[in-house]
Amino acid sequence: MEPTSYRRVLFLLMASLLLLLLSIRTWIRLPSLGSAKIELDCSEYGSWCTFKNRIQSRSGAFIQRTKPKQQQKADHESEVAKHPLDPLTLREIQRVQSIMQKTSIFNQGKFALHSVVLEEPLKEEVLSWKAGSNLPTRKASVIAWADGHAYKLIVDLVLGQIVENQISHENGYPAMTMEDMTSAVQVPLKSKEFVEIVEKRKVNMSDLACGPISSGWFGAGEEGLRLIKVMCFSSAGTANYFMRPIEGLVVLVDMDAKKVLKIIDDGKDIPLPKAEGTDYRLSAQKYPLIPPLNPISIEQPQGPSFKIDGHQVKWGSWEFHVKPDPRAGMIISVATVKDPETGKMRRVLYKGFTSELFVPYMDTSEGWYFKTYLDAGEYGIGLTAMSLDPLNDCPRNAYYMDGLFATADGTPYVRSNMVCIFERYAGEIAWRHTECPITDMQIREVRPKVTLVVRMAASVGNYDYIVDWEFQTDGLIRAKVGLSGILMIKGTKYENVDQISSTDELHGTLLAENIIGVSHDHYITFYLDMDIDGKDNSFVQVEMAKKTVKNGPTPRKSFWKAEKHIAQTEKDAQIKLSLYQPAEFHVINPSRKTNIGNPVGYKLVPGATAASLLDHDDPPQLRAAFTNNQIWVTPYNRSEEWAGGQYVYQSKGDDTLAVWSDRDRPIENKDIVIWYTLGFHHLPCQEDYPIMPTVSSSFDLKPTNFFDRNPIMRTTPCYEKDLPTCAASS
Amino acid sequence: MEPTSYRRVLFLLMASLLLLLLSIRTWIRLPSLGSAKIELDCSEYGSWCTFKNRIQSRSGAFIQRTKPKQQQKADHESEVAKHPLDPLTLREIQRVQSIMQKTSIFNQGKFALHSVVLEEPLKEEVLSWKAGSNLPTRKASVIAWADGHAYKLIVDLVLGQIVENQISHENGYPAMTMEDMTSAVQVPLKSKEFVEIVEKRKVNMSDLACGPISSGWFGAGEEGLRLIKVMCFSSAGTANYFMRPIEGLVVLVDMDAKKVLKIIDDGKDIPLPKAEGTDYRLSAQKYPLIPPLNPISIEQPQGPSFKIDGHQVKWGSWEFHVKPDPRAGMIISVATVKDPETGKMRRVLYKGFTSELFVPYMDTSEGWYFKTYLDAGEYGIGLTAMSLDPLNDCPRNAYYMDGLFATADGTPYVRSNMVCIFERYAGEIAWRHTECPITDMQIREVRPKVTLVVRMAASVGNYDYIVDWEFQTDGLIRAKVGLSGILMIKGTKYENVDQISSTDELHGTLLAENIIGVSHDHYITFYLDMDIDGKDNSFVQVEMAKKTVKNGPTPRKSFWKAEKHIAQTEKDAQIKLSLYQPAEFHVINPSRKTNIGNPVGYKLVPGATAASLLDHDDPPQLRAAFTNNQIWVTPYNRSEEWAGGQYVYQSKGDDTLAVWSDRDRPIENKDIVIWYTLGFHHLPCQEDYPIMPTVSSSFDLKPTNFFDRNPIMRTTPCYEKDLPTCAASS
Hints:
Two copies of one chain form a homodimer.
Chain A: H1 3-28, E1 40-41, H2 90-102, E2 112-118, H3 123-128, E3 139-146, E4 149-156, E5 161-167, H4 178-184, H5 192-200, E6 208-213, E7 227-234, E8 249-254, E9 259-265, E10 297-299, E11 307-309, E12 312-315, E13 318-325, E14 329-338, E15 345-360, E16 372-374, H6 375-378, E17 399-406, E18 412-434, E19 444-460, E20 463-472, E21 477-485, E22 489-491, E23 508-512, E24 515-518, E25 520-530, E26 536-548, E27 558-566, E28 583-593, E29 599-606, H7 619-623, E30 631-635, H8 657-661, E31 670-682, E32 692-703, E33 724-728
Parallel strand pairs in A: 1-18
Antiparallel strand pairs in A: 2-3, 3-4, 4-5, 6-7, 7-8, 8-9, 11-12, 12-13, 13-14, 14-15, 15-16, 15-25, 17-18, 18-19, 19-20, 20-21, 21-32, 22-24, 23-24, 25-31, 26-27, 26-28, 26-31, 28-29, 29-32, 30-31
């Protein structure tokens, strides 16, 4: 062929190839690495969020999602950061990806990004920033895994380069990526031994559903390699494969080499529980549905009262910043409240979030002993948060905020509707008083309570965690955790309690034929950087000290009096709650006083909680030593945010909150951080089968001599004229 | 005059007199004793509920009460009992009055009725009764005070006579009547010494507001007479006279002789706190009001789902009976829940109510040491409950129930809108699960939570207690107590914290100039006659027992296991809660099992609570010994309903729950009653001044292996089509 013709043919060939690829791409909607589009909206591209996924996509019963009418689908492509604490935008994540792809830090240029988040500016920078001025330099904090090491990097997005790089020599690894998990669960499929076991258990490979179970750390034999245990279920006949475990089958996998290290099968005689009755999906219900109650909704004919600009929220007397976070789930920052007397905004909480979520199971057998999850540091509470269901997860006037995260190669993806914000009226009373007839004053003053709720829900495998931050107009903040979702159950030969011998240890409760709900705990540790009217605060344990009166002036023999103990160093604030040694826990600003001289403050008010009973030297408890006390106080330190340490996966417990606190540093009149752990003991019961009604617990941060007086006294009640006129739509 | 004319004139005279009287009566709306009308609607005839009242009626800011549209004003005159547990009707109270007036039991025929309530039929009668059949014989239980003794009488309303009469030889007296209280506060006015002291304190007699403070019991010197301590305040310049105490002035009064026994004044140098800034009434607010949030309401375009017939409530899966009670406030009875599998109603709670409310103050001085209230037995939680404010105390679709009580001479009176019942949607989640991307199942199932709330609010002098019983469709019952209203404060010379010397004991917190909020506790003890699927139940303490593994099969060193301890006698169930010795508290029916053999049951789940620290031999703690433990279990006994004893006023503690429980009676597989105490320690803070934002705590009764599976799995989510279309009314 002539050279010109050759070039023409080549050109035409390439053009057609390009055209072909383009059409294929448009048809399949492949994710294109490094492109400018958002492909990975996980509510639409579920399977692609995992990149590789051999398990057939199940159409299931996907409830038609109603898009909230007042909200436009967020345009992430053109989004820019407006506040110093705003999370990385789509463009910024892409910039990180691009910078990472060009770096020569890693041998052979191969890396996996385990975390790509904003490197928050210094507190001073954030606090001195004013709306309208330039943001502090935008930087990304990146944790990369390469060459068998974790690298902690800071990427300057303005300079366009990596400005800090710390290779980790710590024990432990970063949280798994979605890619780690999905590839791990496929590794056993390559093992002939595994396939044989599955077949012997009468499970079809096409029904196999496997989950990645963090293996914890139990000694020297479990170091130096990233390990994971894969456990499998049958999804034949039900979406609720959790109820059909291939009990006793544990595959130990080398996460990086992607190979099977060991297979344990000590459940040969344990049958697969039945599928019947386990499917919770509406579409799968065979029996008549329970007739619904009359429709009921929270209505706001003039719309909600909150104003949201990007991540900044204004509502009632509150202003705060909220952002999704892959590890914490959701972070509340720079929360300030308006003083009704002065009209000024006053600082309360600089940063609050769920720092770790420890879930130890109480079964010491081979298939269970290691189930001692640290869900934030191993899986990511934000990474496992799925889109909320409008109307059912949140009421109709809720505002939705998307999460924007990065895959292992740095491609941004959207977790839409991950956080909802809504106003709540629940028929509660803010304050009231009526005079009784003795004085004959015809007085009845009542004010209704309206609050603001900020919510997300993480589904960490089987369990659903609903995390709420609720703001009240009287200055109180309530943090609440609700537990729902599906139990992790254990297969058993037992079909009835009668069959259980007295010496047999179930480690839980028989819930249905062949199903044991295994006992376990949940501990959610909150990081609370309280900055009451400023950074320098003190922590005061106000003991209700019992006093006995001997030969007193009156016949009264006993009382309690408040005795204040100001914590000077960290060991003064390692606190176990005790019903018979009660105390209040105040965070005060010793330099600010009320009108009559009390130091301003807030107090932490625990609700119901539980304490870990595990031995302190039991490896899971070593790793979760931050649950040795319910309350801790540390001096503010940017590197001390994750209660289980920076690298929690397979950690040995040498970098936990307990370790830091034992340094016994000064905490009086300093910038301090409060840590509170909300716990649950869970002995399952049949009502938890096959899906659990929500149980929840909470704690409060309550203004205590923060205001000179009740801050909501000068409010109005609800009047009939304010009520809407509503008619059924159908 | 001729005889005919004379008679005519007389007739005309009498006719005009009658006419005149009739017009006067219609104009003034006097209460007429013994008549057939309801005169004493205390929301309209406040002053007449007290009969005598020297304190001027204050118009105050009485919020225009909107009558709930769907409810007709209850016609109490024609009301008849429909259920065996229905409270006495107006006609029945009048019948009691009439019978009492005719009896010759009391010398000189003089008596005061301290309690007139239904004598409940035996449990067997109540449970075997079916709608449509005759009610068991209606009887009244009456406590009368006459000749310095308490008489416990049963009045058969069918026979029209007293059929039982027990003169009390117990220590202690019945609850005060409104007449006791109003006459007691007037007694000091007759004392010259008192008037002089008041004048020296620069309080005008017309501004004087005095309150009746139960004096407790502190030894032999306080027996044999009904005593009360009167303490006074100035209401000059404010409705919130509680903020202006005449500190240190205590008048000991003989309640029956109506005379002053002793006057103590150890507050001569303590100034009267200022009125400024203390008035909480909307009408009294001088400074700009806080702008309200956008209107928000709970809307039900098809109306609420509950059906209420008299005192019987049906909602969702629940049926129960609710009635106001002068002593307990409100009683929930025969609560049954529908089993979704069988469609049958199953028994859960035979009777539940607040049995006592112990409020000890922590100040041992002369003016305070005796403030150790037992509000149910001394004042009556129901007697001090005022009408609820529609729209502010309860949401718009609430149903209201009146209380019907008797005055000291047996005249019935109505406390309208004393209880409200409403459906609540608060944006909460009943259960949920989403699948995360690993399995690629596009599943999101969420169900919203809708509950039913039954509420009343007692204003026992200064404090407001909001008591809620909340029913959930998943079978859970939550009992909640909210505290609001006004603190009992102590006058002081101090105006600033700076002035307080380190040796000075405030017994509380300085809240404002000259005002100390005195430390105190609240303990609300609940009576819970659980009848799980029948009367005979057992109480099982399920301990989370910590176990250490030595040389176990796996590297795990510790875990907890559930160890069940069935309580055999009462001493097995005298329980103090402990965070580090956790347990669950189950009430089971050992004769009924689930499909797979677990005994059916419910568990009591404590929320946040507090424990009394007072010495057991300190007189108030002796009288309130039922707070020595958080949980007790007793065998069902009709005479054991009031935790502080039948006669609590000035009781010595010899007839309390603690005394009964020490009898150590068998409680295994018997009809048992659970007692739970919800407590609060209160160290006041400035936010509590001059009126307190509501704080609350609760506990749950949760089905535990009661159902074979999650009872609300087969429910539907909320759909957009169910939402109403609402428009602002104005």
